[in-house]
Design goal:
With about 130 residues, this protein is of the alpha/beta class. Helix content is about 35%, strand content about 15%. α2 packs across α4.
């Protein structure tokens, strides 16, 4: 990592669920210690409403965020790349550290079912990223 604020890039398939959750939770938990961003391999049209609802419970509104595709530039500039699902094929090799995380799918994509995922991602951020 550099002396500047490290950037963490969260990546998932659609940039609608897990990666949005990771970036928002890092912002919530770390404040200005890290820069957080997210992207996906085949972006969805919008952030998953259940994910946005569970983040809203923490006082953050991510409904205006738009899923986007991961770029080579993203991978070149991120200090830490977090793959929110193992085995994702990236458009280039990341410059920074790569972490592969795995979480079970919620039984359904509603707020009640997403809360345990939010908790699991929060705990992983606290034990893995905030201890750096």
């Amino acid at each position: 990592m550099t002396d500047a604020t490290p950037t963490v890039l969260f990546i998932c398939q659609h940039n609608a669920g897990r990666s949005q959750l990771g970036a928002a939770l890092l912002e919530h938990l770390a404040g200005d210690r890290f820069g957080a961003t997210s992207a996906g391999l085949s972006p969805a049209d919008e952030v998953n409403p259940a994910v946005a609802a569970t983040i809203a419970e923490l006082g953050m509104d991510i409904t205006a965020r738009a899923p986007r595709a991961v770029t080579v530039e993203d991978l070149d500039t991120a200090d830490i790349v977090v793959l929110m699902k193992p085995g994702l094929t990236l458009p280039s090799t990341p410059r920074g550290d790569v972490l592969e995380w795995s979480f079970p799918n919620p039984e359904s994509w509603d707020a009640e079912a997403v809360r345990p995922l939010r908790q699991a991602v929060s705990e992983k951020i606290q034990t893995t990223l905030l201890n750096r």
